[in-house]
Description:
The complex is a heterodimer of chains A (302) and B (483). With 302 residues, chain A is mainly α. Chain A has helices at residues 3-30, 38-82, 87-110, 136-141, 148-163, 165-175, 177-182, 187-214, 225-235, 240-262, 269-287, and strands at residues 124-126, 142-144. A two-stranded antiparallel ribbon of chain A has the order 1-2. Chain A starts with a helix and ends in a 15-residue tail after the last helix. The model of chain A has no long low-confidence stretch (mean pLDDT 88). The two termini of chain B are 37 Å apart. Chain B has a 6-stranded mixed beta sheet with strand order 6-7-8-3-9-10, with helices on both faces. Chain B has a 6-stranded mixed beta sheet with strand order 15-16-17-13-18-19, sandwiched between helices. A 4-stranded antiparallel beta sheet of chain B has the order 2-1-4-5, covered by helices on one side. Chain B is globular and about 70 Å long. With 483 residues, chain B is of the alpha/beta class. In chain B, 33% of the residues lie in helices and 25% in strands. The chains are: A mainly alpha (302), B alpha/beta (483). The A-B interface holds A 162-166, 168-169, 171-172, 175-176, 178-180, 182-185, 294-295 and B 73-75, 78, 86, 90-95, 99-100, 102-109, 111-114.
Amino acid sequence: MSATSAFAEAVVRVATPLAYAALGELVVERAGIINIGLEGSIIAGAYGALVFAGHGGAIFGVAGALLAGILLATLFAVFVLVLRADQIITGTAISMLALGTTGALYQTMYGSVGAALTTPTFAPMVIPGLSSLPVVGRALFAQPVMTYPLYLLFPILAWWLYRTADGLALRAVGEKPSAAAAAGISVSRVQWLALLFGGAMGGLSGATLVLAQAGTFLEGMSAGRGFIAIAIVALGRWTPLGVAGAVLLFGAAGALQFLAQAMAWPIPYSISLATPYVFTLVVLAVARGRAVAPVALGAHRE
Amino acid sequence: MSDPALSLRGVSKRFGRTLALDGAELHVQPGTIHALLGENGAGKSTLMRIAFGELRADDGVVALAGTNREWSSSADAIAVGIGMVHQHFTLVPALTVAENVALGDRGFWGGYTPARAAERVRKIGTQTGLVLDPTARVADLSVGAQQRLEIVKALARNARVLILDEPTAVLSPRESAELYGWLREFVAGGGTGILITHKLREALTLADDVTVLRHGRTVLQSAVSEVTEASVVTALLGDARGPRVGSARRSPRGMRTDAPVVELRRVSMKDARGVLRLREATVAVCAGEILGVAGIEGAGQFDLLRILAGRRAPSSGTVTLPSRIGFVPEDRLRDAIVPTMSPAENVALHDARHFRGHMPWRELESEAVAIIAEYDVRPTDSATIGALSGGNQQKFVLGRELRGSPQLLVVENPTRGLDIRAAAFVLDRIRSAQDSGCAVIVYSSDLDELLTLAERMLVCHAGEVREVPVEMEAIGRAMVGIT
């Protein structure tokens, strides 16, 4: 495999968990909510995938991840939508809670030498024909099955957001909840559903890490992907197409470290590891001031 | 006569301790334009929000074409053909015209497509003359176009009874004329229009019937052909003058000079949307003089008073103000004090921008104590300003603003929400300020209060500022735009 196609393969691999998380957060933010607790849904999803896959195989693991992600999003929704707590504080608390709890549970259930433990995983699924395309063939079509639904999810979301009455309702809620309510839309119902969807996608992001990549669980293995996904949504300017592009960009930033190793570039390993996070800061600085964020994003409603 | 298109009988509504509506009546004949008039707080908007299902009446009946109705939400009222265009628009600025019209439609697979929504907007445009570009973003529309869009939204849901709350308040005269032209056609085609307005002359030219509310009661119901402007003004303002607070107007004892301390020349003010709120106002106030300001909501006095208080820079014109100005804004809790802070901290806020470094808290404490004693603020040992009653807050704010003897005092609704004793105290202090040579500008929505205080009167109407004689009749007429 050439260095180019190895790099392209790494881009897609790194991008897959980010894509699920960012897709979910996109829907949440279009409903006017910023869920910093996404990191919590990802790590909970990863842990849920581990536990369930251990009992019933990889497919069962996906179900566990969905369940765990939704559970964390439900907790966030109860605080933010029912108790009207601050979104940022709630989200931060939920992320910390999930990171701490999954770590403690893992140690309790599998012991401190659990690293040896491996779970059933999805092997790469090579799609005949398409995978022989030059350069991107193997990158796009010889991935674990977790990657493929994304190729449909982004276009479906774009269609749903701009072409259906429900998508319109979601956008209106994020822009001006009072107007949406005046038109007979239940703002809290829309926000609930958006949050649950966001939690499910966060869970799938965690499932990807465990079932399609690491093959095991590590404490804190979400590694800030929830926060990076929030930056991705901003860079993608809150549109499905933009977010898809931003996901690939971040995928490339993350894949650089593999390229650096493969090409034996004289860059210290720790610095190449930091690439995605430095890139996030650069992006936030550059994308600032051109915001087209939903107007009511993060607004505290009484 | 056929059944009224919309009938409200004996409608009462209480908000907390205020009785907003007290057995109000409104009967609107189909195919007519009905003007609903009343002063601020007379209950017009409340009554219409009840008709539209946004509020529930405590008592009374809403009937549509002779059938009694109960709404559980405005969706019910919309379903039977009532539409309402609110004074503050309910549009989503980031969405397109077509999307705003489609908002709230049901259906995941069927119903909405962008093309169908755009087609609907175009169709309504050709049928009614309310032409809008379906793909335009609402944020880019003029205020007049936004208003057309609100009407199109109602028509898209087949509204036959259309309630317009102050539709021309934000429109240019030409846009107003267009709107009224359209409304006549709508009614000629069998629709029914209810027009809430402050603009008496417009209402009487346009409407077939008129209903006047005062203090939540219906005081006049008539065909427009059977009333005169004068009789409507009397109904609006009421002829019974209640017992008055404070002493009667008297000639000032203070030092008068003829050199103005405050001068505005051809001062204009535009709001964020670029709408002219104040047009070429010219005002002069001398030391020791009380100038009264009156105007219905949104007539421009809000900006005028903030310019006079030095709180806002005008868009154009020249402003001469003294260096020391006291300002008592209408909304104390929002604009004058921080309720959770102590009296001393609230004193410090008055000229917080002059402090540097270490705060002289001891001096500020003693100043707060002095204000509390001199202005009879009770209780005297309150830990926070928010714990005081409204009247005591107002006395405290007035005391703070008058400390250091300002050359100009600007006061808005000085006695609103105050009991008789506190109100008399506040008015008395305003007069003492005048006597000591302070120029005073008072805005009040209570005309009687202005009559007892003011020596000269300015009235704002649709952004124009005009000096009028200090007489109830003249002020009332100028407020509704009769020259």
